[in-house]
Amino acid sequence: FEVVAGGRRHAALLLLASRKELPRNAAIPCRVLRGEDGAAAEASLAENAVRIDMHPADQFEAFAALHRGGEGLGAEEIAARFGVTPAVVRQRLRLAAAAPAILAAYRGGELTLDEVTAFAATEDRDVQERVLRDLLPWQRTPAAIRRLVTKALVPLSDRRVLLVGVDRQKAQLAAALD
User: Fold this and answer.
1) Would you tell me the crossing angle of helices 56-68 and 100-107 to the nearest 10 degrees?
2) Around 140, how many Cα atoms within 13 Å sit in the side-chain half-sphere?
3) What is the DSSP string of 24-72?
4) What is the pLDDT of residues 83-110, one digit of tens each?
5) CB atoms inside a 10 Å sphere around CB 166
6) Which pLDDT tens digit goes with each residue over 65-82?
7) Burial 53-85 (b: 16+ CB within 10 A, else e)
8) Where residue 154 falls among pLDDT bands split at 50, 70, 90?
9) Is the per-residue pLDDT at 130 higher than 80?
10) How far apart are CA 8 and CA 6, in angstroms?
11) Using CA atoms, how far apart are residues 162 and 119, in angstroms rounded to an integer?
């Protein structure tokens, strides 16, 4: 037998077996194709060439649903199930936390993945939506977006924070944003 479709699922099953999370005699549903007429090659081609890939935003949201869902899977478990690295999963989870308006603009082709990533530099959805709404055409670079969404952030090591104090600096920043 050979695996002509489902290589990632096969790898995930091997990982589960190596972790002793899958019994040796577990029943794994599969489709066995017989014959020399190219059925296996046709199945592989159909699986990999004819399908329509999901939009990346759908992947972000699917990973987030697995992460916060009933099982509450961690990045490592999600990565093993989908054949990606845990770092990719963590990045996708961060992007899934973007404001719905950001993801809608991305789905509509108004934003690129790099621009969505720049918006995700802050977790504050109100700031993300305000910057998206006020974004000028010449500010549509990831660097400009990142600067705009993080301009209210001041590191604790900044001289202003050390001089004025954290609480007073927060109050001044809040007043400046209103």
Assistant:
1) 150
2) 10
3) TT---------SSSSHHHHHHHIIIIIS-PPPHHHHHHHHHHHHHSSS-
4) 889 999 999 999 999 999 999 999 999 9
5) 11
6) 888 876 678 889 888 888
7) eeeebebbbbbbebbeeeeebebebbbbbbebe
8) low
9) yes
10) 5
11) 28
Using alpha carbons, select from 119, 70, 127 the residue that is nearest to residue 98: 119
| Amino acid letter for position 88 | V
Angle CA(127)–CA(133)–CA(139) in degrees, nearest 5? 90
Residues 6+ apart with CB under 8 A from 126: 99
Q: What is the pLDDT of residue 165?
A: 74
**Which position has the token pair 């014959």?**
35
Q: Supply the pLDDT for residue 137.
A: 80
The pLDDT value given to residue 10:
77
